[in-house]
Structures are given as C-alpha cells and as structure tokens.
Amino acid sequence: MEKEWRRSMPLLSMNIVMQLTGLTARQIRYYEEHELVQPARTEGKQRMFSLDDIDILLEIKDMLATGVNIAGVKQIFEMKNSPAAKNDTKQVITDAQLRAIVKEEMQLAQRHQRASLRQGDLSRFFR
Questions:
Q1: Which of 3, 34, 69, 112 is the 20 to 30 Å CA partner of 125?
Q2: Strands (E), the chain
Q3: Topology at the third CATH level for domain 2-87
C-alpha cells in the first residue's frame, strides 16, 4: 500500500519528465488534453508528475512507436481501466479438469451425432 502511495505522489516537474521520457512538452500537454495522463498542479499551476504518470507516458510512447494511433491508445487505456477488466480474474484449471471438460464435450457431441468443434482441433494429436 505504501509503495503504491509513493508511486502516485506527484514529485517531478515537466522538465524532468521530458528528460526521462524523451517526449516534448507539447506531446505531454497533448496527452493531457486527451485525458491519457492527469498530472497534479501546484498553486502556481505548474504540472507535477508521479512515477505512475511516467509509466503511462512511456507506455503511450511505445504504443505510438508500434503504429497505434491516439484513438487506439485511448481505447486500450479505457479497456484497461474499465471495472470489468479490474474484476476479471483468470481462473486456472488443472490438466484433469481440462480433460474432463473435453471428454464431456465429446460425449455430448456423440450423443447428438455431431462432431465436436474441439474434436477437429484435437484430431491432429490422436492419430
């Protein structure tokens, strides 16, 4: 908890962020306009960035370098920050559970005299 608090503490000025990220002030302000990053402000209205903000800016820079446009970046961040994504915990199943699921699907397909969708995929392993 304390580590998260420290990472979100706004300590870095625009000048330092520019040096750390290799972005220009205009680029950083542009990402702020598009609400991709929300730096804190001092009483004098100076932007102050946290380590989390730096991570976001570097992530944006990497996405843009791979060919994702700004609309795509916004969509990725929206999906990442959605409540469904935060509550989505992956369920791990064992090999035995997986085999039982596949076996049940194949038996059900045989009862209905149809080929299972997975049967075609798995046929290459059982010759």
A1: 112
A2: 12-13, 40-41, 47-49
A3: Multidrug-efflux Transporter Regulator; Chain: A; Domain 2 (1.10.1660)
